[in-house]
Each structure stands twice: as structure tokens, then as C-alpha cells.
Design goal:
Blueprint (H helix, E strand, L loop, with lengths): L5 H5 L1 H13 L15 E8 L4 E8 L4 H13 L14 E8 L3
Antiparallel strand pairs: 1-2, 1-3
């Protein structure tokens, strides 16, 4: 979950919950890993209650089908678990990297 996220440093357990939820929703059937020239990176905001807002492709994989499936997995994971009480902000920005390799 992105290098700029506070999750990786202090709240690895929450980051792992988010990773598991999104990974479970990533549908890769029919996607060709040879057509991926780079990992797809999806950026989004997690609100205090776990609502996902503004998912968008930050970096394309070079394959629109992979990008769309990655974006869809974030939408399908909404809502995520609520932010932990240690997070005092009303939301956090997150990035998730998708790689078929």
C-alpha cells in the first residue's frame, strides 16, 4: 500500500486487512500477464468509516483490461474496514499496486 501512506509505517495490520480485501476482489481470469508492461497502480481515499472514494489509475499497466480489473477490485472492496482509532485524520490517501507477475 503506497510508500506515502501512513499505513505501512504504523498500522501494518490495517494495511494487511486492506490488501487482503482488495486482493480477494481482483479478478484475473483471462488476463494475460505477458501483456502487462508495468504494475497497475490504483490510488484512492479511505474515509474514516471505510468508504472508498475517488479510485483512479495512477499508473497504467499498459493493458486497459488489467487496469480496469484492478480499478474494479477497489470498487468491489467498498467499504473497507473502518480506519483504526489511531488515525486522527478524517481520511487517508492510499495506493495499491497490482502485478500479475
Amino acid at each position: 500500500i503506497g510508500p506515502n501512506s501512513p499505513l505501512g509505517n504504523r498500522l501494518g495490520w490495517y494495511a494487511e486487512l486492506v490488501r487482503q480485501r482488495i486482493s480477494q476482489n481482483w479478478r484475473t481470469t483471462g488476463l494475460d500477464m505477458r501483456s502487462q508492461s508495468a504494475p497497475a497502480i490504483i490510488g484512492f481515499v479511505i474515509m474514516r468509516d471505510g468508504t472508498v472514494r475517488n479510485p483512479q489509475v495512477i499508473q497504467s499497466s499498459g493493458n486497459p483490461s488489467i487496469d480496469n480489473s484492478a480499478l474494479r477490485s477497489v470498487y468491489d472492496s467498498n467499504p473497507l474496514p473502518a480506519l483504526p482509532p489511531q488515525v486522527t485524520d478524517s481520511y487517508i490517501s492510499a495506493q495499491f499496486t497490482f502485478n500479475l507477475h
